[in-house]
Amino acid sequence: MRFWANLIGYQVVWFGAVIGAGRGSPWPGVVLAAIFVAGQAWVSRSPRADLRLVAVAFCCGLALDGLLAASGWAQYATPSPALPVAGAPIWILALWAAFAMTFNHSLTYVRDRPALGALLGLIGGPLAYWGAGHAWGAMAFDPPVWRSLLWLALGWALAMLLLCRLASRWERELRRPVGPATGATQ
Question: Transmembrane stretches, by residue range (predicted)?
Answer without folding.
Answer: 12-39, 51-76, 82-103, 115-136, 148-167
